[in-house]
Amino acid sequence: MVADAAIVRSPPFRDIGSRAQRTTAPRPSAIFALATAKVSFPVSARVEVSSRTGSLAPLQGGSHIRTRLTLSVEPIDRETAFSFAGRLAAVNGVNLAEFSHDLALPLNKMLALDEGVMDQLMQLAGLDAEAGAELVSWTGRPLAGVRMMYRGDTLVSRAIRSPVVRGCPQCLHEASLHRDPLGFMAMSGAWLLRHTLVCLHHERALAPLWTERRPRHRYDIQARLAELADEISQRSIQQAELEPTPYDRWLDTSLASGEDDSSLGGHPINVAATMCYLVGLRLGQGGDAVAEDARSIHDAYSAGFALLSDGKNAFEDFLDDLLASRQLSDRRSTVLGPLYAGLRTGLNTDDGFDFFRDIVREKVLRTWPVAAGEMVLGRVVERRRLHSLASAAEETGEDEGTLRRLLVAQGVIPGDSDQSDATIVFPAEKLDRMTPMISELVHLAQVREAMGASETQFDALVDEGLIRPRIEAANIRRAWAVQDGLAIVSRLAAAARPLKADVAGWLHPQDAAARYRAPLSDLFRLIERGQLVAGLAEGANGYGALRVLAAAVEERFRPPQHAGLSPSAFGTSIGVRGAGAIQSMIDEGLMTASDVVDPRTGRVHIRILPTDADSFHRRFYSLQTAGEATGLNWRRLASIFTAQGVEAVSTSSGAVERVYARASVDRAVARFRANETKKQ
Fold it and tell me: Fewest CB atoms within 10 Å of the CB: 55, 353, 370, 577?
């Protein structure tokens, strides 16, 4: 038998004084009239209240002086103090207010479970302090800040104080069959807790018995039960049948013993049960739905307990599943439903929920693009963790389409994702690193104009890799930085001297490079080191004003009388950047090269003859030769390579920019064309 059933088994009252005086107790014919009947207390010596102290004092004239009532009752298992006081009054023939008045026990203090009043009540009933403490424990002692101490836990008052008083009509009916119903019917303290839903003994839902906003009337238990006499006797109070679940048994055991070996055992009972309800609501109904009927409410508690009893990981998995299916436009309260609303509003002042609130908040911040300064579940977000395309666009001033292409090009978000703009989120720190670069991006023409270069001159710089876009993607045009062009001009101009406008024997570095088949990068390096005389022509600006002494270039780069190209010139011919790129491939044995003696100097030169060039072309593509072979421009190829993970050839000196394994390129282009065909 469970504890609720004990209500019908406990003795209704006991006789502390002489048995002869029990004849003044109510007769069976007055069963439901006691709440309003006025009879004198059968005490061994009348007592009066001291006008100065308000304490009980014996009157003179009795043969014995006693402060114990002759007719008393025994507390019933789990009974509330209000119920016990009402029964004590009932067996003595008065209602609670009269009982309180006649014995100078202030009713407001009694309802507040004042310690002094409770001690006097126990003395009158002939009970010890331990019995009183048990009654108070099942009733809930008020604490500061609308809190109460109930069964060893601190909880909010509304968890056990409500205008709606519930109970088990079946338990009350069985108790009413006794000859003294009002002295026998008791209210269980478990019924006070709003999370208690079922009478385990009768397997029925607790039912609302009465609604009263005024506590002095609400907790005059026997008066209210007297008003329900007919309904209780006729068993007409509706009470749904509910089969107890593990949730009900867990709650009952926790309240009775204070022991809880489940994963919820470390939490106050109100916190644990509330979380069961909120989680169960979201599991069973979703959205903002709230259970209303007894069965739905019970189902929610039971489902929530089944999940939470599996531990923290189960709760986190549940949240992950909810958040993974959300749309960015969805409100958090829409996705998490009453779970989020409850933790954010009604429960936000109860630190007992911090454990669960912290878990939910962390999940939200890892999933939603929440801005710094925004309040999430009672705590201000100190730093943004995630951006959406919309929030990133607002922060950078870029439109969402351009920004998405930039993020793809930088590998921040996948290029082949079919996610809509509304659902894409990415780490805020990645945008933080990109923002300075994004703010510097301009179109190619703006860089060319700023550095004073012609279109041909600028293209030559690009072809040799002396300037390159900050973002290499075919679908991004604003990918260049003015600073990169100005830096080239600044380095070369620093080593140049002023020249008259039309001085003979001087050429622009790019003209000299073309005439003498000299890599432009070599000329720049020599100028910067002071090893090649350079000048700035009067009347010209920026890059276009640069000049080099033609004779000096010819002297340094006069070709030997033989076929073939130097490694750097071969690299230039196929669009490979850097003078040492091809040489590093030769050194690694990735391609062959020939030693050719210069007949004028006797110096041995490494040259790339046709057979050596073939050794390269059989195994590799440059971006330029890949374009020639496939008919795709270099920007499109670069985009394909990035998307499909085709990486540049690597040597011990590092990556050889714009050189790729031929087989990898062929496969990537084939996949690209196959995808294009499908789209058509």
Answer: 55
Say yes or no: 523 and 624 in one domain.
Answer: no
144 and 47 assigned to the same domain: yes
Closest C-alpha to 543, from 442, 441, 455, 440: 455
- Let me know whether 369 and 268 are in one domain: yes
Average pLDDT score over residue span 338-345? 87
Residue at 563 is within a domain: no
Under the banding of pLDDT at 50, 70 and 90, the label for residue 331 is: confident
Answer yes or no: are the C-beta atoms of 309 and 317 closer than 8 Å: no
Q: Where is 47: in which H helix or E strand? A: strand 47-49
Average pLDDT of the segment spanning 495-520: 87
Residue 350 predicted with pLDDT over 70: yes
Whether pLDDT at 356 is above 80: yes
In a domain, 66, yes or no: yes
Q: How many domains does the chain have?
A: 5
The answer to whether the Cα torsion of 32, 33, 38, 44 is positive or negative is: negative
What span, in angstroms and rounded, lies between the C-alpha atoms of 140 and 189?
Answer: 9
166 touches 297 (CB < 8 A)? no
Residues 655 and 675 in one domain: yes
CA–CA distance, 431 with 247 (Å, rounded to integer):
47
pLDDT-derived band at 27 (thresholds 50, 70, 90) equals very low
**% of residues, the chain, pLDDT over 90:** 49
CA-to-CA separations, 598 to 55, 513, 568, 606, in angstroms, rounded = 126, 20, 17, 10
* One domain for residues 341 and 322: yes
pLDDT, average across residues 85-109: 93
Is 240 contained in some domain?
A: no
Based on C-alpha coordinates, what's the Rg of the chain?
45
Q: Which residues pair with 142 in a beta bridge?
A: 148
Lowest model confidence (mean pLDDT) among 38-47, 137-146, 431-440, 655-664: 38-47
| Residue 400 lies in domain | 386-442
Q: Report the phi/psi class of residue 349: left, alpha or beta, with left for phi > 0 and alpha for psi in -120 to 50.
A: alpha
Q: Same domain for 449 and 418? A: no
206 and 267 co-located in one domain: no
Query: Domain ends where: 234, 255, 287?
Result: 234
Residue among 626, 619, 622, 620 nearest 669 (CA): 626
Are the CB atoms for 519 and 567 separated by under 8 Å? no
Out of 558, 576, 592, a domain closes at 558
- 151-202 pLDDT tens trace: 999 999 999 999 999 999 999 999 999 888 999 999 999 999 999 999 999 9
Residue 569 lies in a domain: no
